[in-house]
Specification:
973 residues; alpha/beta; 434 Repressor (Amino-terminal Domain); Rossmann fold; 12% strand; globular
């Protein structure tokens, strides 16, 4: 066996095998604990291929060992030629022409792989900022993405819907074709796009992204595109981003790639488009989607830039980048120091970096504030650099962190290392900051994140007459190039453009310029624009006490005067409090008073907004005693999103004071945000002791599963992580379990274990990739069955062998052209159908006992005719519909609509004359107003309306007849 330097892959495999033996685990047990496939585990333990980071993280957790040394070995193995060959062998390469005669497509793919294969890392090489690059292969960290499951039932209330599903990026993206990716500044969105671009260009995407292989990437940064007028059509994609191959692109090539479904279109930065142009940007996207239905699309944005469901009508899956976990932060810190050691000049410096890494790993875990600051790759890199620069001493607030970073990046390193007058120019820190502020402020005022080089030179030139000491050293062009080359804050993405290395620094410096210019009205007038949110927060940080008080008062006053922006402005003022060094008590009380009027939250969206304010919001959240039913869940969700020890303490007190006899859904769902055993014992267990079990337990992690024994007996449970049959059944009583939901069934090989649950009344199965049928369920007295996202070859024959089946949900592709061939019992009373089943509704009338129908696709006229022939149908839930094709249905007494455009309410009274209850969810319509006046024709109708921007016709109904969600606050319109 060679040593680690000779064969790191073999050393890695040896360590994994030794750990398995020490833990006394068989291969099957290790496979169960990790949730990995047998082949993946075997290859890792035998050193056949370089394991993925996700695989190593899972193995390290299952083996109870530190993952950093394993990842270091993987990094070394990745640089070995045989490792690269082994990775390449895992994918099917594109056919290539003989060397010397590459096609345009091959040249383009080579260019994309090279163009996006490096990351700029803040502070990595302080002596030469222009060299602060990280190879993407070593730098990319697979972060967690959160997704709300597709196929929410149209008739399910908000609080009863499935919680978000958290997966590693490659797993979350694997089943998607169109993705809207939300993430905070510095969270890694752009890096993920780079990784996808390089992986597709090299044909080296992992197994989980098998359906994405063979794609040709187009990276379209909107920060660049919006500067050039109208957004480009496909044949102009390359020219619009300055690709040098644009001139040699064959005519019709881009159109052909997109039309064949071979394109991966990566659109970066919706938030970098001015608000007034985002509608046009969506129109541009929708035109591309209409023309190229089979292409893959990923679109990124900051969370607040566009509303939830912004691209829902175009079938986009919304994913959110999660903050880095403690394990992710540990991996990132290890990688940063490994990369830094590669540029270390001496053995002593390398040794020092090892010691600093060890110290920082401990410090980040021990200090909660620092851990929260480190939760994005950008901030984590900044903290690593500062920790190195300051010999282990770190600032604690965000403002202090930025100030220290500017000092470090601008001049301190050059001075301390005796680097004199680089490029013939020497600027003080103050001079550099003044010039950078000018550039940043121009970008902010003009709503840009990139400027022409000529504009940047002009701005520097305008400043030089008042900066004689700088003007004497060189021209505006020379000074600008010095800032690009030496500051570590500016970069030159193309020969004629200038931008900041990250938007965060632009906002910080622009805010400083705004305060120095006393531009308080400008800040306040733009505070409702998400592009200015961070600028306003930073302005409060830069301002002197009297100035920050003035700015906060102005924000409150504008919020008081403008109904449309009141919540946003008052919350922004509250969020800015933590940035101020000193605040007048009267102003603090004023801001907190306005924030209290937004309390308690009444929807998941309001909870998200409040949680963004940070731990300080916990002091404003009320206890359970004074809350209405619709406020309990959002308050819990707010605290859980904040996370950390203070949030846990709040939830513990909150749970103890709940008047309810059972735990709210959100309290159970928050289990995944904290230590599983502690949360189960101290928060969930008391409900069992009162004889009132939680309504449903959701299991997201192995740690949660391992604590289920504390909560037995369990009657209702949802598994949202991959588990084997034995792991699912281990803590469930055969007599007690009534509802079993398995939403990640990739490890299930059969369903025989289900037969032991004699009291089961409802079963849900999703993503069961190893199952081909449900014959193991034949003969069971199972009333309710839900099937979601099953393999295309799945067989449904055994549905006819479930004699007591009365409720069937199908959110998976079906193999028949119509429902006439669906082998379900004739006694069905409820049928739930997803929008992508690929089967027409013809034949639905054979279930004459049907009382409830949920339809998530638009019926045609013939299908509406057949639905109307169901004599007992009383409840109809429908989305993505056209009521112009519908026929009268007098039997329906409850109607629920989820429109994606005009809700057509004027047609409802004639089509459903006997309605007693009506619900409409306006979330996806994007309409400014919804007119419910036509519904007044139906006497005694009870109406529920969710997420309507503005309503017309409320005066036609009594207050008791209409319920709005979220429930309006006093003064809402």
């Amino acid at each position: 066996m060679g040593n680690v330097h000779e064969d790191p892959l073999a050393e890695l495999a040896l360590r994994l095998r030794a750990l398995r033996v020490q833990r006394g685990l068989q291969m099957g047990g290790l496979q169960q604990r990790t949730g990995l496939g047998r082949t993946t585990v075997s290859q890792a333990l035998n050193g056949h291929v370089v394991p993925s980071e996700t695989t190593l993280l899972a193995l390290a957790k299952a083996l109870g060992t530190d993952v950093e040394p394993l990842l270091a070995l993987r990094h070394s193995a990745m640089s070995m030629p045989q490792a690269r060959e082994s990775l390449v062998r895992r994918v099917v390469p594109r056919p290539r022409r003989p060397k010397g005669h590459p096609s345009f497509e091959e040249r383009y793919l080579d260019y994309m792989a090279e163009r996006h294969s490096q990351l700029t890392v803040v502070g990595l090489d302080l002596r030469r900022p222009e060299r602060a690059h990280w190879p993407l292969d070593a730098a990319y960290l697979s972060l967690e993405l959160a997704e709300r499951p597709r196929g929410w039932l149209a008739g399910v209330e908000e609080a009863d819907r499935s919680s978000v599903v958290v997966k590693r990026a490659e797993n979350a993206l694997g089943d998607c074709q169109r993705v809207l990716l939300r993430g905070l500044a510095g969270s890694g969105k752009t890096t993920l796009l780079q990784w996808l671009a390089v992986g597709t260009a090299r044909d080296e995407l992992p197994e989980e992204l098998g359906s994405w292989r063979g794609q040709i990437p187009f990276v379209l940064p909107l920060r660049t595109l919006v500067r050039h007028g109208p957004l480009p059509e496909p044949h102009h994609f390359l020219a619009a981003v300055g690709a040098p191959l644009a001139a040699s692109q064959p005519e019709g090539w881009a159109d052909g790639v997109l039309a064949r479904g071979e394109a991966l279109v990566l659109v970066d930065g919706i938030d970098e488009v001015p608000q007034e142009h985002r509608g046009a940007t969506r129109d541009w996207l929708e035109r591309l989607l209409a023309a190229y239905k089979d292409a893959h699309f990923v679109v990124t944005t900051r969370p607040s830039a566009v509303p939830e469901g912004w691209l829902a009508s175009s079938r986009f899956t919304e994913l959110s980048v999660r903050p880095m976990s403690a394990a992710d932060i540990g991996v990132f810190v290890a990688r940063w120091h490994t990369a830094a050691r590669q540029s270390a000049a001496t053995d002593a410096e390398q040794s020092q970096l090892r010691n600093l890494e060890t110290t920082l790993q401990v410090t980040v875990r021990a200090q909660r504030d620092l851990s929260q600051l480190s939760s994005t790759p950008l901030m984590c890199a900044l903290i690593c650099a500062l920790h190195r620069d300051r010999r282990g001493h770190l600032p604690h607030s965000r403002r202090e962190l930025y100030e220290a970073a500017l000092s470090m990046l601008l001049v301190r390193r050059d001075l301390e290392r005796s680097i004199d007058v680089p490029e013939g120019i020497q600027l003080t820190e103050h001079q550099s900051v003044q010039l950078l502020q000018r550039l940043a402020y121009w970008l902010i005022r003009n709503r840009q994140t990139e400027m022409d080089r000529s504009t940047a030179e002009a701005l520097v030139g305008d400043a030089l007459p008042a900066m004689q000491a700088v003007a004497e050293q060189g021209t505006a062009k020379q000074v600008l190039m010095h800032l690009v080359g030496r500051s570590g804050l500016l970069r030159q993405p193309t020969i004629d453009t200038i931008d900041f290395v990250h938007r965060t620094f632009q906002d910080y410096l622009g805010a400083k310029a705004a305060i120095e210019a006393h531009d308080f009205p400008l800040l306040v007038n733009n505070a409702d624009d998400d592009q200015w949110e961070d600028v306003v927060r930073m302005a409060v940080a830069h301002a002197r006490p009297a100035e920050s008080a003035d700015l906060l008062r102005r924000l409150v006053e504008r919020g008081d005067a403008e109904d449309d922006h009141r919540s946003r402005l008052h919350l922004l003022a509250a969020a800015s409090l933590q940035y101020a060094t000193e605040i007048e008590p009267d102003v603090r009380r004023l801001v907190e008073q306005r924030a209290q009027t937004l309390m308690p939250p009444r929807s998941p969206e309001e909870a998200e907004e409040l949680a963004a304010l940070g731990p300080g919001i916990l002091d404003l959240l009320p206890g359970a005693e004074s809350l209405h039913a619709d406020e309990v869940g959002p308050v819990i969700k707010t605290a859980a999103k904040v996370g950390g020890d203070p949030a846990y303490a709040f939830l513990r007190r909150f749970a103890q004071s709940l008047p309810s006899d059972s735990a709210p859904y959100e309290l159970i769902d928050s289990w995944k945000n904290f230590r599983a055993d502690e949360y189960a014992r101290e928060i969930l267990l008391p409900f069992r002791d009162r004889g009132r079990l939680p309504k449903r337990l959701a299991v997201h992690t192995h740690d949660q599963r391992n604590t289920l024994h504390l909560l037995k007996p369990i009657s209702n449970i949802a598994f949202r992580q991959k588990f084997t049959e034995d792991e699912i059944a281990e803590h469930l009583s055969s007599e007690c379990i009534q509802i079993l939901e398995i939403y990640s069934g990739q490890l299930l090989t059969n369903l025989k274990f289900v037969r032991r649950f004699s009291s089961l009344i409802e079963l849900a199965l999703s993503d069961c990739t190893q199952l081909g049928h449900i014959e193991d369920l034949a003969g069971l007295p199972l009333p309710k069955l839900r099937l979601l996202n099953l393999p295309d070859e799945f067989r449904f024959d055994a549905l006819n062998s479930l004699p007591e089946l009365t409720s069937l949900s199908l959110y998976t592709r079906l193999p028949w052209p119509s429902l006439a061939d669906l082998p379900a019992p004739k006694g069905l009373k409820s049928l739930f159908l997803g929008g992508w089943i690929g089967t027409r509704l013809t034949g639905i009338s054979k279930w004459q006992q049907l009382q409830v129908a949920v339809i998530n696709s638009a019926p045609n006229k013939e299908e509406w005719q057949e639905i109307s022939k169901l004599p007992h149908l009383t409840e109809l839930y429908i989305s993505d519909y056209d009521l112009n094709h519908a026929v009268p249905m007098p039997s329906v007494t409850y109607l629920r609509l989820s429109p994606t455009s005009d809700p057509q309410l004027e047609l409802v009274p004639e089509l459903f004359p006997n309605l007693e209850s009506f619900f409409i969810n306006c979330r996806a319509t994007q309409l400014d107003t919804t007119d419910i006046t036509p519904l007044s024709q139906i006497k005694g109708l009870q109406i529920s309306i969710s997420y309507a921007s503005k309503l017309i016709g409320l005066e036609k109904f009594t207050a008791e007849a209409v319920k709005l969600y979220p429930r309006p606050r006093t003064g809402d319109t």
